Every structure is written in structure tokens, then in C-alpha cells.
Amino acid sequence: DETILASMLLATILENDAIDDRALELFAVLPSPRDSIQLSPFETSIARCLSRDWSTVDSNSRVSKAIECVSSLGMMLLERTIFHTWTEGGQCMDAVPFDHYYKSSKFVQALGMSLSYFASQAQSYLPDAHATREIFSDLIRKRYSSVDAPDSPRFHDESVKMMCSLQNYYPSNFIDNAGVLTGDFVHDDSSTKPSSSGDLHLFHDENEGAKFALQLTLHLRSILACIQNLYERLTLQNSPLSIANSRWHGEGESLSFSTTEEADDILLSIGGIGMTRLPEVGTNIGLRGRKFFRCSLPRKSKFGRSFSYDIFIDASGTRMTVTEKTDLVLVVDPTEIYIGNVMKDDSNRCMVLAVVPLRVIIASATEGELLHIVCNANEKTTGLPAEILKNGTLSLRFGHSFCASAKECLDKHHQAYETKVVMDVADMLEKCSRMASERFEAQSNEADDSWCDFQQA
Question: What is residue 193's predicted lDDT score, i.e. its pLDDT?
């Protein structure tokens, strides 16, 4: 608790425009140019905190929040130190000394080592592949939110953009939150932004260790990538303001951190977020080249009474009535399934009535001519009224010879999807666990030359 409070206090000081660099020098928050060692004792303390032996610490929400606060504070302090020490009039003064400072920074080193540790811890939970995938997917979908970003390279091809603002994790954001100050974390399900509780409600079950490691891997990965992005822009020889294919937004100032991160393809895959926008309910899609099976709703009454359901097919409230006699089609794609109504004038096209991502499907089973698709009841599906998706189960009726084929196709696609996501999780964790060792091994080869240049500068 003391770590969180101290981070909140110092972050508030760093963000206060009324406290200039001279005052921060007097309080030893920023290094003084008169000192022989250009190092803030606060940076050393932050590095020492991140470098501790986390295997001896309980994996709980409070520790996770403390690490998020300390690492975010370190990034804030690093940015302020850069402006204070190496800039004048908005320009970088000495590239060689800054290059050496970055490569020898105890905070950056501790950040990389912490990321490597928590990624390695997360890898130990990979044998329980399904649970690990579910946890990681949930964390990603809570951390990254869908926003419009006209400057995104994927904006014009109508692909999905999921963004995370690291400023939401600055400790100063929680200064007025009594839950953080008292250590009582209460999750608000109505909020989609990181808060004092944020993802902390995830720690209330038996998967606490996996969620602890995965959440910190995500956060530290973002922080370290943000710092590396700034370093590359500061030291790049050719046009530091033009970085192609960057997932960091807001790069108008080369000396500022770009704290808005766009989820890359591997995060979208793990999170079960389609890389392209899905067809909306009411739109028409082609069936050529797709796996599809003609079906209908189950018969609801042996006495022949007909049941009907209204599905809204556009934002204006237009409805389509679906009964057990409506000709439907189940379309199985690599990442989702569609329930559609076959077009009367073109049997090779259908109107989308519902979209169900494969990630929400738990299992499927046949019962005669019926195929039951069990979905996570807590996940939202598009288009299906509650009367059709009862208790998370979608039931469709097929011709008897096609019911088993539909299940086999669905199971094959679902298994392939799960396997790919698990492989993406393993690949990302492996890269994170190696990030620190590879980074500092490469930098150690340059350290001696940089130090000689630094002494001469």
C-alpha cells in the first residue's frame, strides 16, 4: 500500500506545472547538472523495487497494482529526466550521452528483467492451455478498447483498431479513489476504462497466479515498448519523426512518449478480436467458398403450434420475423459462425441474422436432427434474442444426414482456432521472456564504445 501511495504522490508532483525543474532538482527528484553523477535517487529506488525477487511475493491484486504504478511512474520520471537533461528548445542536445544513459539505465534494465520474469512465470501455466487462453483474452479485451483512429495505418481498410492509453495507468489517476487509498478494490462492470480496480476482479478465483503473471506481462511489455519507441525516434539518423508501420500514436513530438498503443495482430488474435470488421446484422454475405449448412429453428411444439422471434436487422429498428419454417443457413468461418437467412433471389447469398465468435463457443453436441452449440452465457453475441439463445445454448435443426457433418465442421474449425491462439500466446510469452536478455546482450557489445564517447563529450 505504501508503494502505491508513494507512486501516486510523486506522479502528482511530476505532473504539476507549478513545480519547475529547479524545485525538482532541490528535492533530488531530477538530477542536478552540478552533480558528477547524472542519476536521480528516485530512479534507483524504482529500479530496486522492480528488481526484487517476485517469487517470494504473494500473487494478488494489490501487488499487481503496485507494480503497474511503479513501472508507470518510472516511465513518467524518465520522460521528465530526458526533457530536463538532454533537451533545449525542444531539440535533443547530445545524442551520445543520451544513448549511453538509456543503455545503462537501471530502470530500463529492471523493467526488462521484470518483464522477462513474469513472462516466464506465465509460461508455466501454458499446460492448462484453455484456461490460459481465456485469461489472456479477457485481459486484452479489458485493457484495449475500440476507438476510431483516423491516423491508424489500418483505418482505411475498415479493420479493427483496439487502443490502450498508458496514461490511464499513471498513478496520479487514482489519487482521488478511496478504494486504492484504503486497499479495497471494487470492480465496476459498467466501466470499460482502467480504474483502481480495473482488471483486479479477475483475481478472485483459483487462477490468481496465471492472471497475475499475464496481466503484468501485458503491462510491462507496453511500458518497455513505449520507451524503446522513444529511444529509436531520438537516435534514428534519418528523419526521426517518420516512423513507418508504428503501432504508437501521437508521434508529433519526437521528445515525448507516444503513450497511445494500438494492439498488434498477435494481441488481436489472442483476444479473439477479428482483424477486419465483421459483417453487421442485416448485411448480405456470399456463400461461395464458405462452409455452410442449411438449417432451421427447432420445432417447439409437438402439437404444431408455431413460434416466432423478431430479430432487429438495422439500427432504425427494422425487424425480421423468424419461425421454425424460415430457411436458415449456418456459415462456419475460421473465427466466427453466422446464422443467415437464404436470399430468395440468390441462393448463393444470405442475410446475416446473428454472429457468434468461435472464442465464445464452449462445446457442441447432436441430438437426432438437432445441433446444440453451447456458448459462454456471459459473452455477448450479435443478433440472437434471448429466446433463441437460451442459457447460452443455440439449437438448430438440420436434415438428419447433415447434422453430424455440421458438428464435425464446427468442431474442426473451433479446434484449429483454439490451437492457433494457444500457439500465439506461447510465441508472445517466449518473445517477452527473451526480450531482456537479448536486448542487454546486444547493448553490452556497444557499452564500452558508448562510454568512451560519453567521457569525451
Answer: 43
d(CA 287, CA 7): 56
Question: For residue 247, which phi and psi values (nearest 5 degrees)?
Answer: -95, 5
Confirm if 170 and 14 have CB atoms less than 8 A apart. Answer: no
Ranges assigned E (strand) in 238-332: 248-249, 260-262, 284-286, 291-295, 308-312, 319-323, 328-332
User: pLDDT tens digits for 81-119?
Assistant: 877 776 655 555 555 566 777 788 889 999 999 999 999
Q: Which of 112, 413, 79 is nearest to 231 (CA)?
A: 79
65 and 408 Cβ atoms separated by less than 8 Å = no
- Kindly tell me the burial class for residue 262, based on how many C-beta atoms sit within 10 Å of its own C-beta (0-12, 13-18, 19 or more): buried
* Residue that the C-alpha cell 446473428 belongs to: 354
Of 360, 341, 335, 363, which Cα lies nearest the Cα of 420? Answer: 335
Q: Which amino acid, residue 147?
A: V
| Burial class of residue 180 (count of CB atoms within 10 Å of its CB; 0-12, 13-18, 19+) | buried
